[in-house]
Amino acid sequence: MPPKEVEDIVQETYVRACQAEHSQEIKAPRSFLYRTARNLALDYVKRAETRLTVSGENHGTALGEYHRLEDETFDRVSADEEFSLFCDAVRHLPIKCRRVFVLKKVYGYSQREIAQELELSESTVEKHIANGMKRCTFFMMQRTAKGIRRENMRKPNSRWGSVNKVDRS
Amino acid sequence: MKPLYEFPAVDEVYEEASIWIARMDKGLTADDEDALRKWLSQSNDNRAVFLKMTKLWDRMDTLSRLSDIFPHAPAQERQPLRLPLGLAASLVVAVVGIWVGTELYQATDSVQAVNAPATNLHETTVGEQAAVELPDGTLVTLNTNTLIRVSYTEERRLVTLERGEIHVQVSHDPSRRFSVIVNDHVVQAVGTEFNVEITSDQRIELLVTDGIVIVGILEGSASGDNADSPSILPPSAVSVSAGQEITLASSEEELRMVEPEEIEVKLSWTEGNLIFRGESLEEAITEISRYTSVEFRFLDEDSKRVRVVGLFQTGDVDGLLAALRENFDISYERIDEDTILLRGRQ
Hints:
A: 169 residues, two-stranded antiparallel ribbon, B: 346 residues, 24% helix
């Protein structure tokens, strides 16, 4: 079980953006799914490119596809706002899903470790992760597509960025 | 008739992409990977959604920052235990079996001759921290506003904590007991690590991070010559082992286990950080005030009760003020160099 407090934070509170210039506090990402995903997706492009080259057509299409893969939907928010939105997204997950997700994304547990910790089957953990990711994606799309919400506009600009207000109201 | 190619609803693409992400996170088999490659080649939507989501997935690792503030150890047996203790009031002893922050110790040039019986003073001012290596290799880290007196002879090793907070990593030497005198108490160890603090209300907090220490009341006067020769403590002294915390107060004396993550938070000062996990702003300011000569005054009650979560770098008052204003809606007014008024916006 994650510490009770982290559930509180994620569950009942809105954690304001943290992190500004203290970049040393930013942990290196643990997962690189994007890189793998991109390589797998580009296999298709490469094949298409080969076909195009063979057929003598210009391969601008493939190049275009290559760039098209760079999705910038979530690039519009700053790191501060993003962190805050992630907290919010996780907070909106159903409770069991949230527990799994917190262990995954906050504590970096493997699916097997999560299964052991929460006494769930590994396939259940996998389902929670899939479901959680879908919900988080929709949440992020909603928040970023409609423009950044007003309260997020008033973004902290402090050097001491890592203090968050926990609004328990 | 060939079946019509069915365009999946966009929602379905997200659904499928999520399942692929969960599976990737678990680890793809070669077959999985082929299937995924095939799925990706099926449509632009599949590729676009999948890449968008994997990117988000990776970025969400930034949530791991929360684990600094809420360290998590896997669930384990933690038995609270209570012991009746015959100690005087106002001593707080915490004992735990985890070590945090050894790497922070640095050798300093305060090397003395082992046999010199001279007393040495080590002091930090408000906001300052220092690491001191004693002649026997014992390492003492001084927190803000701390004064210790070190007195070594061939028979015993003695450190008197006059004020503040220290973390001690005792060099093992069974022939010379290592003692810390704190007010009218003695903390004795052979080879262990612990943290001692005299709090602002003159309580003593002792946190042992490794090994066993013995705590007793100093015979005779609270200070003075007797303090200089704390011999072997009587059997009535309390022995506390790693993994336990003991709280001694006038009305209530208890010994309990401390969770490793709590220890980490308590010792975060050795890394130059203060960690808050939902404390009131008033409590946080009290703690922060130990590290600065600036005095904070609240002009309203509501601001005091704001709950804070985060990592504070000791001594970063400007950063604190900016965060209070931007994140907490609390404005400040610096009325002179050492006084700052805090006021909620409403």
